[in-house]
Amino acid sequence: MRSARRAVPPVLLACLLLAGCSSVKLGTSTSSANQSPAEGASGSAAQAGAGKPIAVGAGPQKHYTVQQQPAAGSCHYRYEHGEPLEDPKCTPGAISPAVTQANLKSTICRKGGYTSGVRPSAYVTGKEKKLNAASYGYTGRMGDAEMDHLISLQLGGDPNDARNLWVEPADPGHKKGAGVNNKKDPVETKLHTAVCAGQVSLSAAQKAIVADWTTALTVLHLG
Prior knowledge:
Structural class: mainly alpha
Helix content: 25-40%
């Protein structure tokens, strides 16, 4: 009896210990595996997108050149309540390094205006407009569409960075041949007024317009 009891327990004890450790590891692994892959991916995407800095362009130039636009057909419009929005993959926005919160009074908020002195020529923007229309597959009247700066010049947007440019179609109900007339422009003007009045920061206005210009005023409690 005694010798049998002495011979068997060490083997059993080793097996039990190994089995016990394996079960603990498996239990931990199972717990991690219970997390939904979709939830994990969604969380990572949300964290990656949250607070992502806006690209910085080259800023105002003495002589602008025609910038290469995304490949034809690679960009796709989005619509919010019928209003056209840019494709964030093609047009994520870009800001000018020449405009900062510290120099607003001498740049976008200065008396006498700012945008006319930094805007590219019609020759440059005209060529870019045709190229960008192909990028977005825009086939409407060119005269009814605007070659728009996603972050407008009056909000410190880069004047000629391709990431800040897109052909903006006319608003719903717009009469063909009536020329450019869209609801984004008044939003930009209100944001500019709020920035210069110190109601919102330059960065907040830029981020709001990039996220969704149709909700920018509401998000910043200006509408």
